[in-house]
Specification:
Oligomer: homodimer
Protein name (chains A, B): Transcriptional regulator, TetR family
CATH topology of one domain in chain A: Tetracycline Repressor, domain 2
Strand content of chain A: under 5%
Order of helices and strands of chain A: HHHHHHHHHHH
GO molecular function (chains A, B): DNA binding
Radius of gyration of chain A: 19 Å
Largest interface: A-B, 49 and 48 residues
Organism (chains A, B): Flavobacterium xinjiangense
Shape of chain A: globular
Helix content of chain A: over 70%
CATH architecture of one domain in chain A: Orthogonal Bundle
Keywords (chains A, B): DNA-binding
Distance between the termini of chain A: 48 Å
InterPro entries (chains A, B): DNA-bd_HTH_TetR-type_CS (IPR023772), Homeodomain-like_sf (IPR009057), HTH-type_TetR-like_transc_reg (IPR050109), HTH_TetR (IPR001647), NicS_C (IPR041474), Tet_transcr_reg_TetR-rel_C_sf (IPR036271)
Chain lengths: 208, 208
DNA sequence: GTTTAAATTAAACAGTTGTTTAATTTTGCT
DNA sequence: AGCAAAATTAAACAACTGTTTAATTTAAAC
């Protein structure tokens, strides 16, 4: 598993990831990143060209192997509903582990005008959607899933539920009494994941 | 229906709303707002105190009557599932009409540190949750809704699905062939709303 | 050891940021 | 009319923004 980035670049990328997730893309300055990563402010431009291109590199760095994981999931010998459950788990786990890059990826990056890497990212999303679609069609032909669901709207429900929970972190930490970081993360891994799986299962199977 | 803000303040608030929704809070400068609203840049500080307090005022301005609408919905003579459907419609309609303030409200405002008005906003969210809870408990006691759903996680599913769709606007416009603004908004009002209603209904009624 | 390229630095660049000041104009009141 | 409060203005403030430059240090190759 070799990356196109050297050690120093990876440090910059990971520091940037943390700060972007904490304070947003606009809210993070190159000087913030440089200080945290203990490098000179010129190094970001030197290695990545610009702040925007740093963001593009970060997204590339974090999404390069997602497609591979999805492809492996599809060919596993599992019932469709089990595949869906695993896909949900996979998504949540990745998003949660990668600190907060997906927040930028799905929200902030969308509003940036640079059409360069945005196209590549759009392709990634289309690929993910195709993987989900193939699982659902498999379930439909087996007669397990209902056929009137709007497949492209399922991803928004999966990811949107998670994001909304995560974006209102402090609200839910207070509401659900999840004082420590561990309690909060554990709640995501168990209850929230279960809720999403339960929701999608009901949507796919329930007959009105 | 009188507001605490005068005409000039309302102009500023509504210009700010549009710009915040377009370019984000950090991405919008006071000079942007002043130019668009055709006022002097000092007027924002003069009327609202600071840029952050302008945001707080904006949220106050836009959420003050939401609770009232929810209270009216609860006492209507409808089946619980119909109330849920109406609640979903109400949410989506409000979010969609108020341009994009809810994006800031639910995402950007959360990451701001100012604990002042954040507390008030948290109370609003708790109130909304209580309204939803009362409807669901009503359905549970009537034996229509299942009893093992995690109620606080339903709002994330409703709002999260919508937000995720809306945040990836250009992606879905391309994917679903919604070239014009009208087509896009119509898709939200029909298909997306239906998808969310369908999802929540399945979640509340489906027995595994 | 010399040479060549890569890495790193401090400094300066030209803009933009939110906010404040002090002066001026407008408004409402008697 | 005169007066006082409110509204509006242009200008300045210091701090921060992303990026570039030119000089210096480090590393690798021969």
């Amino acid at each position: 598993m070799k990356s196109n980035f050297n050690d120093k670049q990876i440090i910059i990328l990971e520091v940037a990831e943390t700060l972007f997730a904490e304070k947003g893309f606009d809210g993070t300055s190159i000087r913030n990143i440089a200080k945290e990563a203990k490098i000179n402010i010129a190094m970001v431009s030197y290695y990545f060209g610009s702040k925007e291109k740093l963001l593009e590199s970060l997204i590339l760095y974090r999404t390069s192997d997602l497609k591979l994981q999805l492809d492996n999931l599809i060919i596993e010998d599992l019932e469709p509903i089990e595949k869906i459950n695993k896909l949900i788990e996979l998504y949540i786990n990745r998003i949660n582990c990668n600190k907060g890059i997906y927040r930028i990826l799905h929200f902030e990056f969308t509003s940036k005008k640079g059409d360069s890497n945005l196209q590549a990212f759009s392709e990634l999303k289309k690929g993910n959607l195709k993987s989900l679609e193939s699982i659902i069609i498999e379930g439909q032909t087996k007669g397990i899933f209902r056929k009137d669901v709007i497949i492209p709207l399922i991803t928004p429900t999966i990811l949107g539920t998670f994001f909304h929970f995560h974006m209102n972190k402090s609200f839910f930490q207070n509401l659900l009494n999840l004082k420590t970081e561990d309690l909060y993360n554990n709640y995501i891994k168990t209850n929230l994941t279960l809720h999403i799986q339960q929701t999608i299962k009901a949507l796919l199977i329930y007959e009105s």
